[in-house]
Amino acid sequence: MAKWKRDALAWHERETKMFEDFYNDVGKQMVNSASGYSVPGSFLCYQAQGTARSSFVSTAIEDNDKNNLSVKEAAWLAGIML
After folding, report:
1. 71 close to 24: Cβ distance less than 8 angstroms
2. What is the DSSP code (8-state) at residue 53?
3. Would you state the pLDDT for residue 39?
4. Residue 34: CB partners within 8 Å, gap ≥ 6?
């Protein structure tokens, strides 16, 4: 594989992880930590309650069933707005 392709793939993976971490952090803030529920790898089933302020990402999480985006797609959508 060409060096520029390796570099581009590495950049994409690094940026995807960063965007998904930001996206997931908002989701975790939306979850009421006192609820006692635990669904590994998923917070989209919870109602927005907790410490997250209203934002583009919190709205995307709340409306995920309407938008039908994967976490990666939604994270990139929010990330490119930075």
Report:
1. yes
2. P
3. 41
4. none
Amino acid at 8: A
pLDDT tens for the 82 residues of the chain, in order: 999 999 999 999 999 999 999 999 988 888 754 354 444 444 544 444 566 678 898 888 888 889 899 999 999 999 998 7
DSSP 51: S
Nearest to 70 by CA among 19, 25, 7: 19
Domain ranges of the chain: 50-82
Classify residue 33 by its DSSP letter.
G
31-41 as b/e, with b when 16 or more CB fall inside 10 Å?
A: beeeeeeeeee
* 82 vs 61: CA distance, rounded Å: 17
Is residue 19 within 8 A of residue 60, CB to CB? The reply is no
